[in-house]
Design brief:
The protein has a five-stranded parallel beta sheet with strand order 2-1-3-4-5, with helices on both faces. The protein is built from 13 helices and five strands. Helix 4 packs across helix 5 (about 50-55) and helix 7 (about 95-115) crosses helix 12. By secondary structure, the chain is an alpha/beta fold. Helix 11 links the parallel strand 3 (about 180-185) and strand 4.
Amino acid sequence: MSFCDEVKKRFIRLSRGQRKVAQFVIDNPNLVTTHTASEVGKLIGISESTVIRFCYAMDLTGYVELQEKIKSDIAGEVRGEVKSNQVLFTVKHEHLVSEVMNRDVANILDTIQHINDVQFEKASKWMHKAEDIYILGFRQSAPAASFLTSTLKNLRKHVKQIQHDVDHIVQQISNMDDKSLLIVVALDSILEDALTIAKLASNKKVKVFAITNSALSPIRDYAEILFTVGSQKQSSNETITSYSALMHALIEGMIAQNKRQYLSFQEANSKIESNFLFQETVRSLQ
């Protein structure tokens, strides 16, 4: 196990200040190896003593040993990347489909191991009971958020995607209350704007759950439930498969709360769409 993996394993047992150090170590290993404990503390916005206490919490003798551990991690990653590239070059083109799809299957299986059954059941019930569902996802996460929005709109009323526009954000937040649900999609490094929205929603007693690519994502401070898919080292293309599988499962969990209700909504929706298309066809022929 790498040192960074060990940090993730112990993350929940660290103090709030030490968690900030842990997050910084995971996200910026190169800076840790080239800066002093005092400089790292200033970059994070905490005291040097908190950085040192983090080292002790990780059973290290001090900051120097932390740097040595990180350097060892980085060296191991470089060796792993070289080996991985060598393997990729040897894969024959005719085996590319099975290679990619098997990797997706492995990612989904890995995601399953990190899903908490109690949290999954709770999130499914929230999706069913919420009067309004708001979907938040910016930058590379926006397409995934859009797909989730359109899927849920086909199953229930009052589903809205928050756009990255100040006026729209203000309007949506003002409409939220304790009967609302905010789903945060953060499959890449989360923007400060998204954190602010989640914080404001949490302050309004809105139920919040998030799907991220890192168990150490700062969104965890504002989300009661956190699901992790993929990892920060994976591209968004690799992460999206696990995300889609998880959301499919959550939606099935939501439908299971009252299958007849969702089937009726879909049927009514289909009739409206069919009638709309018929009217459009008639107009085009006139």
